[in-house]
Design brief:
By secondary structure, this protein is of the alpha+beta class. It has two domains: 104 residues, Arc Repressor Mutant, subunit A (Orthogonal Bundle); 147 residues, Multidrug-efflux Transporter 1 Regulator Bmrr, Chain A (Alpha-Beta Barrel), CATH 3.20.80.10. 39% of the residues lie in helices and 20% in strands. Strands 1-6-8-7-3-4-2-5 form an eight-stranded antiparallel β-sheet, with helices on one face. Helix 2 crosses helix 3. The longest helix has 19 residues.
Length: 275
């Protein structure tokens, strides 16, 4: 089995079994390697220990559910691998800077933009820029946008396993559908990286993004609350700007690494093509 395949098996297993046995021993079994060697391989290929990756993915899954659902928080915690609600609350606060209840209160994701209170997350002034053409390599995703992390993990693992990061620029996500108009199961997106090589490597899909004038909003905060930034862009800025969106999807450029950055400090550029 290729090491790339071992890594993908483990990352998929973590995503698909957030409340399962994600101990180092069991993940080594999933990878079909010894416990000692698998830990070193995983850390060398991803930059994280298995425990760090499990914690990050579980908390990301929980944060998305907390702001999207009315499910009791203790049930979400259990489904994401935290049987003890108090332990979950402490772990969540240490990563996100808020208790799960306060995070839910801050994530006002369904109210129209004009009715939303000003949130705690900083959104910079929206700028109009001329953005370059880009070729992306990556993995298509279908389903809830908050679940695209699984595709980003796969894309990153494939790039790392083949030593391709020196030929890549920033990581990007392309989002083709309006989640208010398309059923969650049918939403289309793409997890990619800016590719600076020649043809797309085997096993990757590629996407071309045209150069042109873009409205760019820089959002600071957890990915789980990014909908508030889109509401600002579409509900406040666009009607007052005199601009018309082009017939092309928005995309996001991720300016820092969630493996190394606290959720509240994550920076994302939301790029809206303009006519």
């Amino acid at each position: 089995m290729r090491y790339e395949d071992r890594l993908l098996r483990v990352l998929n297993y973590i995503h698909d079994n957030p409340n399962g046995d994600l101990s180092l021993d069991n993940l080594a079994d999933v990878a079909a390697m010894s416990r000692f060697h698998w830990h070193r391989v995983f850390h060398a290929m991803t930059g994280e220990t298995c425990a760090q990756a499990v914690r990050r993915m579980r908390l990301h899954r929980a944060a998305g559910r907390i702001v999207r659902e009315d499910t009791p928080i203790d049930q979400i915690a259990k489904a994401c691998g935290y049987a003890n609600p108090r332990s979950f609350g402490q772990t969540f606060r240490s990563s996100y800077g808020l208790s799960p209840t306060a995070f839910r209160s801050a994530g006002i994701i369904d109210a129209p933009a004009l009715l939303q209170r000003e949130g705690r997350h900083e959104m910079h002034t929206i700028e109009i820029r001329d953005m370059p053409a880009r070729t992306l390599i990556g993995v298509p995703h279908k389903g809830a946008y908050m679940e695209i992390g699984k595709s980003f993990e796969k894309m990153g693992a494939m790039i790392a396993a083949r030593g391709l990061w020196p030929q890549c620029g920033p990581v990007l996500g392309v989002y083709y559908d309006d989640p208010a108009a398309v059923a969650e199961a049918d939403l289309r997106s793409f997890a990619g990286a800016d590719w600076r090589g020649n043809d797309a490597p085997e096993g990757f899909d590629s996407v071309e993004l045209a150069a042109g004038k873009m409205a760019v909003l820089t959002y600071k905060g957890p990915y789980a609350m990014i909908k508030s930034a889109y509401d600002k862009l579409y509900g406040e800025w666009l009607p007052q700007s005199g601009q018309t969106p082009a017939d092309a999807p928005c995309y996001e450029v991720y300016l820092n690494d969630p493996r190394e950055t606290a959720p509240e400090d994550l920076l994302t550029e939301i790029c809206m093509p303009l006519a």
